[in-house]
Amino acid sequence: MQQRAKDTRLSVIQGAARVFAEIGYGNSSLSDITQRAGVTKGALYFHFKSKEELALAVIAEQHALVLAAGAGIVAADIPALDKLIGLCKMFGQQLLDEPIVQGGIRLTFEASAFDADVSGPYKDWIATAEALLRTAQEEGSVGSGVDPAAFARYLIASFTGVQMVSNVLTGREDVLSRIDQMWEFMMPALSPLAN
Amino acid sequence: MQQRAKDTRLSVIQGAARVFAEIGYGNSSLSDITQRAGVTKGALYFHFKSKEELALAVIAEQHALVLAAGAGIVAADIPALDKLIGLCKMFGQQLLDEPIVQGGIRLTFEASAFDADVSGPYKDWIATAEALLRTAQEEGSVGSGVDPAAFARYLIASFTGVQMVSNVLTGREDVLSRIDQMWEFMMPALSPLAN
N or C: which terminus of chain B carries fewer CB neighbours within 10 A? Predict the structure, then answer.
């Protein structure tokens, strides 16, 4: 794809993410999206055949964006458990700052509305968390009795619920402090002294 | 309301819950619902003015149903911490067995599609959990250093995520074992020995 076509595609996705984040999938029309994205219907349909295809592209872009932001944390020269905690904080911050992430997460929760399989990002994060927990065990910061696969699944599920309930109850105002609190409550289960 | 009108209203809600559980809010039409509920459009419109009003009634009925099932557990002569664990298991079982609960929970996650405030049930469960945690502290099964309000919020958020991710990844096949696992990972944070 030429650079100009790529730029147009990205600006359609950005505009769509803003609209989906604000009013949700069911209430968004393609004309709302072209208006906000500052692109023509022709440009939109050149890249996306339907609202569903566009929504899936927003979810994919959101996941790519958070993964890219996470890559720096995963590559950093810090203990694995600190990487895992840092990834959760980074994701929380993106939920506050980044419209593509806000749109992608809202679409992920509403995905049943367009029968999309949204399991991929969950599986990616569970696999990342599991690998970091194994390294943390080698580093001695997580007890050897902890099952990394089971805890990774629990962590991703809890994180999903924590940010979702923060959104329902406070419009995400307390999401960062609730993520910190989640980690406080999780730490005793990971302690090498107890396991 | 006369008993017959109440029965009709409930059968509309039950039929609607089945349709919402299967195909979601956005894809359901009022004629799908009248067909499945075995009631006429006239009967449906006598009780509900719109699909949104009907969806909110399904959520309310779901919440009432789970609260009623929980009342027996809360009143039982068992330790408060066991009540809290029992409530989570009961809710998990209802998610597997009860169409009204399946419909209500799907609608709660899709609620942004119809701009409904779904914070009420979350707040109720957080308050119930907080009260049980305070009693558990008095009974000595939860450490006195645990903040009951903070942990209650964390528990309800985690539970929400655990059942949601179980639905996305396994169609709820593993929901009961994931709820058990959640409790295993939570217990060390509650331990009276550590707090």
Answer: N
